[in-house]
Amino acid sequence: MLNRVILIGRLTADPELRYTSNGTAVTSFTLAVDRMRTNANGERQTDFINVVVWQKLAELVAQYLQKGRMAAVDGRLQIRTYENREGQRVRVAEVVAEGVRFLDRGDSGQAKSATSTAGAKPNSASVQEPDYDPFDDPFADDLPPGFEDDMPF
Questions:
Q1: Which top CATH class is 5-150?
Q2: Mind listing the pLDDT tens digit for each residue in 14-38?
């Protein structure tokens, strides 16, 4: 079985860092992800996806990401149910991030990433001096010329 989600989008608000009663850091944020296809009016639709990050990675995300920043999230989809204050059962879908990559430059002008592996403690963020333009498409030369013209859809 496989439960793997990879998303690229922009944060809709600053991440919210909290701590559980036993001191474990947890950060949540919403990622705005554009759909690949346009709707009948020619407009792109956007999905707003809740993301949860735990432990050291949660602290790093809260420290380095802000509203509007672009990020890639690698994790798993989780569906959980809880009872709200009115006594109604609520189902929530969210992505539990195992890795977060910061895709654009923040105020410091550096691209940063933080990742962890399943079952292991998250690594601290690795800081990379950018010698690239983060808005260049690194995959632009991967497809042969005219490849998209041959697609049947």
A1: mainly beta
A2: 999 999 999 999 999 999 999 988 8
What is the distance between the alpha carbons of residues 23 and 2, in angstroms, rounded to a whole number?
Answer: 30
Is residue 144 predicted with pLDDT exceeding 90? Answer: no
CA distance 82 to 93: 12
Q: Is the pLDDT of residue 119 over 90?
A: no
What would the DSSP string read from start to end of 31-63? EEEEEEEE-TTSPEEEEEEEEEEEHHHHHHHHH
Strands 25-38 and 16-19: antiparallel
61 within 8 A of 106, measured Cβ to Cβ: no
pTM recorded for the entire structure: 0.67
Domain residue spans in the chain? 5-150
For the chain, the farthest-separated pair of C-alpha atoms sits apart, in whole angstroms, at: 58
* Cα–Cα distance list, 106 to 17, 29, 72, 76 (Å): 19, 17, 15, 26
Residues 6+ apart with CB under 8 A from 66: 11, 14, 15, 106
H-only helix segments in 41-132: 55-64
